[in-house]
Amino acid sequence: MQKMMSYMRSAMERYNMIEDGDRIAVGLSGGKDSVVLLHCLARMRLFYPKKYSLTAITVDPCFSGKETDYTALEELCEKIDVPYVIKRTEIGQIIFDVRKEPNPCSLCARMRRGALHDLVKEIGHNKLALGHHMDDAVETFMMNLLNEARVGCFSPVTYLSRKDIHMIRPMVFARESDCARVARVESLPVIKSNCPADGTTERQNVKELLTFLEKDYKDVRYKILGAMQRGNINGF
Q1: DSSP string covering 189-223, please?
Q2: Which tops the pLDDT comparison, 10 or 103?
Q3: Average pLDDT over residues 26-51
Q4: 193 Cβ partners below 8 Å, 6+ apart?
Q5: Quick check: 21 and 124 in contact, CB under 8 A?
Q6: Which pLDDT value is given to residue 5?
């Protein structure tokens, strides 16, 4: 837990993610990464020098037309004294049942982001914290390189001028394995995704490629992140 918060504080200070008085909405999907992000940000309220408030927000895609049971997340939020808002949508049905998208992930992600941004504005917050970690950043960089022949990634901090909100990613220096360890040690609730495409995505393919490369090129993910920082790729 201390190690994770150290990674987060380093990123928060390097990229000036948080200012005094920020009202931060934490995107809570129910996966281990977002749950760990919320848990750590709630703990860091006690000692971080810049004071901020938190609200956890969930956009439920309602895959197969069914509402996801987030009771465990509601109980966690009550325990750590964080308000929790759930927005039910028809995103799952639109993607899989109406449009029958052969490659659903990109459109689904855009629709979910749009719903999250709208919800942040609805509750009157000025920042949205997302649980992307270092593995996500490196995988995104590689996906853009291999599939689109371009160099790029998401940014640690992004300003959305249309909505007048900032997206921040405090866990960009942490590994996915760090998130898994914190979730396990802290006994945090994790909600399994009901997405029909879960585990069969292009991101999974790139994750496996990087794991394969790691056998011959030690710390390849750290090296790619270092190259992104030296090249100032998307503000890294």
Answers
A1: --PPP--TTTT-SHHHHHHHHHHHHHTTSTTHHHH
A2: 10
A3: 97
A4: 29, 30, 31
A5: no
A6: 98
Q: How many CB atoms lie within 10 A of CB 103?
A: 10
Q: Give the span between the Cα atoms of 60 and 42, in whole angstroms.
A: 22
Query: Residue type at 15?
Result: Y
CATH topology of domain 2-235: Rossmann fold (3.40.50)
Map tokens 């609200």 to a residue.
55
Distance CA 26, CA 116 (A): 10
Residue carrying the six token digits 């150290």:
6
pLDDT in tens, 165-182: 999 999 999 999 999 999
| CA 153 – CA 184 distance, rounded (Å) | 29
| Residue 227 CB neighbour total at 10 angstroms | 14
Q: Is residue 127 within 8 Å of residue 158, measured between CB atoms?
A: no
pLDDT tens, residue by residue, 104-134 = 777 888 899 999 999 999 999 999 999 999 9
CA distance 68 to 30: 10
8 Å CB contact between 225 and 133: no
More confident residue, 193 or 20: 20
**Least confident span in 17-31, 37-51, 105-119, 134-148:** 105-119
CB atoms within 10 A of CB 71: 10
H or E stretch covering 127: strand 127-129
Domain ranges of the chain: 2-235
**Helix, strand or coil, per DSSP, at residue 228:** helix
Q: How far apart are CA 77 and CA 71, in angstroms?
A: 10
Is the pTM higher than 0.85?
Answer: yes
* Overall size of the chain counted in residues: 236
